[in-house]
């Protein structure tokens, strides 16, 4: 798996987000800190028709067809999407840097051994 340095883990405050690329320049992802203070990362691609999702008011929004996803696990909560967003695994290193370290298994899917 590819690991990408996302900078200091404490750089984002609750309710903030920023974009990053993961495997290549076309693999667009979004990093966010939830209102509860958790760091989460997802591919920015809506599971409906592939529009770019954005973090807006505590949830992830797809502006193309008014789809919304919750932040905790990327589950769809409104609109046409029926599948969750693809999650990116995060790791905070001892020096306080945050790294994207791989793909999270899809909900309900066993993690590979």
Instruction: Give the C-alpha Rg.
Output: 14 Å
Shape: globular
Q: How far apart, in Å, are the first and last alpha carbons?
A: 14 Å
Approximately what portion of the residues adopt beta-strand conformation?
A: 35-45%
Rounded average pLDDT: 91
Share of helical residues: under 10%
Total of helices? 0
Instruction: Give the ordered list of helices and strands.
Output: EEEEEEEEEE
Tell me the major beta sheet: 4 strands, antiparallel
Can you list the strand order of the major beta sheet? 5-6-7-8
The total of beta strands comes to 10
Description of the molecule:
This protein is mainly beta and 113 residues long. The protein contains no helices and 10 strands. It has strands at residues 4-8, 17-21, 28-33, 39-43, 54-56, 59-62, 67-69, 76-78, 88-92, 97-103. The strands form 3 sheets. The chain has a 4-stranded antiparallel β-sheet, with no helix packed on it. A hairpin with a 5-residue loop joins strand 3 and strand 4 (39-43). The two termini are 14 Å apart. The mean pLDDT is 91.
Q: What are the salient characteristics of this protein?
A:
four-stranded antiparallel sheet, three-stranded antiparallel sheet, mainly beta
Strand and helix layout:
Layout: E1 4-8, E2 17-21, E3 28-33, E4 39-43, E5 54-56, E6 59-62, E7 67-69, E8 76-78, E9 88-92, E10 97-103
Antiparallel strand pairs: 1-10, 2-3, 3-4, 5-6, 6-7, 7-8, 9-10
